[in-house]
Structure formats: C-alpha cells, structure tokens
Amino acid sequence: MAAADQEPHASAVRPRSYQDESYLHGFLGTVGDLQKAGVLQDVVLEVEGRRCPCHRLVLSAASPYFRAMFTSDMAESRQKTVVLQGLDAGVFGIILSYIYSGTLHVSLDKVQPLYQAADLLQLDYVRDTCSSYMAKNVERSTCVDLYKFADVFSLEIVRAACLPHIARNFTEVASSVEFCSLSVNQLTEIISHDELDVKEETTVWEAVVRWVQHSREDRLHHLPSILPHIRFNLLTSDDTAAILEHPLVREDPGSSGVTKNVVQNSELNLRPRLGMATEMALLYNTKRGSKELLFMNPREGKYISCSYDPEHLPDFSAMTVTSDNNIYILGIKESEDELQLPLFKYNHAKNVWEHAGMSPISIRPEDDLKYYKQVLWEVDQILYHITFDCFEDSPLLEMRKYNRHTKQWQECSQLQLDEAIDYHAALHCSAHLYFLTNKEMHRYDPSQDRWCKRTPPAIIPDVCAAVAMGTEIFCTDFAFSQTMVYNTESDCWEGLKGCQNLENLDFDSVDSLFVLENQLHILLTCTKGENGETYLVCVYDRSADAWRDLKATLPDKTSIACASKCPVARIHLPYLTGA
Considering the entire predicted model, what is its pTM? Predict the structure, then answer.
C-alpha cells in the first residue's frame, strides 16, 4: 500500500475538548432543584432567627466570603449552624435566590441593603448590578439619600448620577430633612456645583444657614470652611452686608474674618450658577469687517448685540458650544506659506474672546478656504474638526480631534462620500457625530474611530438644517416643506408637519434649527417689502404637531445672519450688559 493511502497512526490524531452546553446551562437549575427539595444540604445559615439550610460547596463556589469561612480553620467550618450578623433576613433571601438561580431581583426599597450584603459577602456581580440600578433610577425624592449612600461606599457612578439631580432641584432639596443630615464635606461639594438651579446666590446662603442651625452647637465651627463656597461676587452689596451681620457669622469668632477675606477676593470665583443664566442662541453679523454678535432668547424677548474689538474677535469659519458651556470659534489666519485655523474661547465673565491655548489647525496652502466647509463639534469633552470641499464630485470628509495630552490635533478616520454635496448637515447627538444629506447619512463612533452608514432622510429634497434633541435628530429642507425626526436608537425616520400651519407667514427660506429651553425652534428668512429681509422665529409643539410664530422682533436680516449652525449657550446677562 502506498504511503499516501495508509491510515494515519493513532498518535497523530490531535486530541480536542468538547463542551456540553446543555450541562452548563442546566447545572444551576439542578442545584436549585436540590435546594428546593432540601436534598444533600450540609449547613444551616441563620439570619435574624431565620434558618436557611444550604450546601457548603455551592456557597463557597459563589462567594469568596463563604469559601474562606468553610475552607479555613475558622470555627464556622466545623459548625452545622452558622449565625450571620449584620444582615437583613429578607435581603439574604434575595442573595440566596441569586446564588442558587443566577437571577437577581432588585428594587429601589431593597437596593441599598442588598448592596451592603453583597459587599460583605464579596459578590461582585450583585454589587455592580446594584450600583448600576441606583445610578439609572435616581429621582428627585431619592437623590440626596442615594448620594449619601454612594459617598459612604465610594460609588462614583451613583454619585455622578445624583449630583445633577440635586443641582437641578436644589431649592426643593435644600428644604428637605435629608439635606440637613449631610456631612460638611457633602454640603460643600453640593454648594460648589456650577449647575445649581438657583436664581439668586442668597438661596445657597439660606441653605447653609438651615444646615448649620439644624445642629448649631456641632456645626457652627464648620462655617469658616463653608463660607468660601458662597459666591459673594454674585451677591449685591446689601446681601453681602446682611451676611456679615448675620447672627451665625457674628457669633463665631472665625467666621467674620473669613467672610471679609472671601468678599475681598470674590473676583477669584466669577462663574454664575446654572439657574442664573439664560439660554441664548448666537447669531453673527455678516457685514465685512463687522465684529458683532447677537445673543437672543425670543421666548423671553431678549436680544443683546455685542460689538468686539477686531483683535478679540477674528474672522472665523465655525463655532460650537461644548457640554460644559464653553464657546469656541475657529479663526482664520492666512500667510503666503500656509493657512492656519486658530481656536478662540469666549470668556463669559469679561465678555471677550481669548486665544484658547490650543495648537491651530493647519490647512494645505493649495486649498482655497472659500470652497471648504468647516465644522467644529464636541463629543465627551473632545473637540472634533471636519472639513471638506463642497464642490468636489465625491468629497472626502477629513476629520481631526484635539488631544489634550499632546496638545496637538490628530487625524481621525476619514469619510468618502458617494456624491457631490449641495446641502448637508453635520451635528453631534449622544456619543456620536452625524453627517447627512438627503441621500446619505453616516455616523461616527469616537470609541471605534469608525464611520458607518445609516438610513438617510430620502424624502427631503435638500437637508438645509438639522439639530439634535435628546436621542433624536430633527431636520428640514430649504423651503421648510418637509420636516422629519430621526430616532438614533432604531435608525428610523418619521415625518412631521413642516409649514402647513404657517400659511399666513411670508417667509423665503430656512436659516437654522436650534433647541432653546428644551424646545425645537426654527429661524426663517422673511421678506418684508421696503423694509428688506428680517427673521421669523417659530417654536414646535410636538403634542399638537404644529409650529407657532413667536412674534420675535429681531434686527434686520441685512446685517444679522445665522452661523453655519445656531449655537445655544447659557449666558449670565449682566456679563453682556456690563452690570
């Protein structure tokens, strides 16, 4: 027989492993059945007088706590009944059910003692699940209690979820019994928060007074360490004088001197609280050489125009507002050798534009900026810059992100479009960037540095404007004939009414969509005969699927026009007016 025809020697057959999936999935079920039947149990755990027969092997496999107990020289390893201290019987029942079934039942009224039990018994999955459950179920009525619990157990994910709720509901929270039970460190962390929704800084001072007076003898000595967290620069001189004369300050020898020192150095902390700021949409003047911005809130009838020194506000190609309310513009600096785009940042307190201290973006000298579109967005506190030639047949979107460690812009994944771009929109929604036309839609995932195709809004003839609100994207066409909303989670589009209920309004085109005070707004160019062009602003009522004219009285369209998008920022009005 030829060598090729010979059967391989048995030793040449490689061994392999097989896994019985049904056994793996059925093992816990079998163990649970043994527990229910009371078979082969060899230890009794007693919690608050309740006796729970169990299996040492199962307990040891599930918990390092029990494994150490039953495999060491501890007395419990030889006892038939083990009494567990510091556990609630009902909660321990939930733990045992998890150990024997792999299923964990969590509820808001049991989650804290359940976490404590899991922490004692070293059950990582139960701990992590409880932490995630608390973070996802923070409410106004529970935020302080969960915050205190998270602080004790160093649960950063829960603390981070609680603080915004406390800040948004500070006035109500500060009046609660739970607020008075905070530690001094917890109190100072809360009142140091920029996001406190208070109209006046006196509200913060009154909350401190209430906290101190709840246990005056024990807490009065903490007042000097608390006072620096009061923003005296946001108080009137009368309010400051009243605090200096307050019995608590006068009673404590150290407080008066600390208060005077804080007042004298109040310029060190100028940031207003969230509740003191007004959301404003930003427009800019398109007249050549003009250095003017319009801050507007049509719902409140506020329109403030600010002129800037040409040195402080350069010509710019893009603007964005970040999640922490910083406003950036992308300037333009031309030379014979190269074209650079430096970043400038808005100083709210001084109402001036300053160099952001970031390296500029360099553009190839052969690129003509007038043919290039510039986009600037932030995702998770990282700035992204997109540029492309809108006149190319199949333009390439080039993207960079700013690396704060290296202080340089680094290349990201590029995107090759299928067709030329007439109208487009680029925006940030949730943790992604989106680029869309009527025929193409692409999503960029920063964690993967990857673009992927999504469903485009095909029935819209031209995507003129788009804006994100929550997990949805709204877009409309140049003539405002089609308005659609995109669900980023289901990748589906839904049609909304365009201008159907605005027949009486004489408008020419759409300038921008923007979200102000959690409501969708649209900025329209309107022809007014001899008076030239002006703006119309309408707000969308989703429950009625209808638009309403806000009767806004904006300045002339001939001098004011919307940027590539209409950024919205929280602005402290006295900064703009110089008060």
Answer: 0.70
